[in-house]
Amino acid sequence: MKIEKIEIIRLAIPFDSGREKSGSEQQDYNAASSRVTKMETLLVAVYSDTGLCGWGEAFGHLINPVTFTALESAVAPFFLNRRFDSVTEIEALMKEAEQAFHGFGRTGPVRYALSAIDIALWDLLGKQVQKPLWEMLGAVRNRVGLYPSLVSYDNQPEAVARQVSQVFERGYREIKLHETTREAVAAARETVGNQAEIMVDVNCPWSAEEALRQAESWAGLNLKWLEEPVWPPEDTNALAYVRTAGIPLSAGENAAGDGDLVHLMASGAVDIIQPSVSKMGGITAMLRVLEQAKRYPVTVIPHCFYYGAGMMATAQFVALLPETTRLEVPWLQWTPPLHPFLNFQPEMMLPDAPGIGFTPDVQVLADYRIDFAVCSNAKGEHHV
């Protein structure tokens, strides 16, 4: 099939997270921040000459305007008129694109744009062959467990305990926090006792020395993992130093492509790697990482703080992994939800529909769209 048109859709949908407003309602570069009151996403809809449409999602949040421009001006036009009809041809096309755009970095807005297109191509192929992505990938299960990824509650122990109690009562037995003090994390542990796993993503705040000190003070909290404790996040020597505290470490969502993830795995500095489908190159790159991970003593648990096509693509990928591996979902109550799978339950039954199973609500797309562009074969140019 041939790619004839690519739509680029930037959305911002309000949500509730059960926390008090923190100062002004300005947005923040960290999506887990208490200042965030709505969450952006950047979707692509790729149309083929067969009449099918494939959906993809790029990482970005507040950098979405830059990724939008990268898509509109360079990445989407690159894919117009391209043909593919198999996994091998998707892999070849994405390799050509990665080589063409490599001068713009192995991470950042161009890479995010390529990730969105790759997801959409897999969605298109699934629809053409009439198979869901999990089946195309060779998975044997169509159910995946979920774990809620809570936003930050500004290290307030009472607020953390309240939110953890709510998700625990709903049946979740793995819960991720975005807090940075022992008091806040201890409140979560005290709430669930030893009946649930607690993970903590601290978002790269500390030097190696400070991170080790923090990790040692958290040793008795029995964390499943501590995520990205050091700045800069690619400092594998610092990660290895912090790992001596005995808490399993995770990292990888900020890796510069799958090559950087291989370096991270080879360093022996982490226990868990977290490739991120809408950041690092889509499904094609995720599969390369999974294959490389077989060579190292690491566990693959994807990062997923997405709520569109990226979330659904990650869910299908998780079906390839051991049954104990759960899908991360942003624990937010969308007003309104973009698609039905945002009504989270402890377990998700993957759709039998062909492709990634993402069907956005057209009214939500219309009501919350903040930017839109089309790259089309009709005139051989892109237009807004």
TrEMBL record:
It comes from Kluyvera ascorbata. The keyword Lyase applies. Keywords: Lyase. GO terms for molecular function: lyase activity. This is Mandelate racemase/muconate lactonizing enzyme family protein. Signal peptide: none annotated. Pfam families: MR_MLE_C, MR_MLE_N. InterPro entries: DgoD-like (IPR034593), Enolase-like_C_sf (IPR036849), Enolase-like_N (IPR029017), Enolase_C-like (IPR029065), Mandelate_racemase_C (IPR013342), Mandelate_racemase_N_dom (IPR013341). PANTHER family: D-GALACTONATE DEHYDRATASE, D-GALACTONATE DEHYDRATASE-RELATED. Residues 157-248 form the Mandelate racemase/muconate lactonizing enzyme C-terminal domain. It comes from the Bacteria.
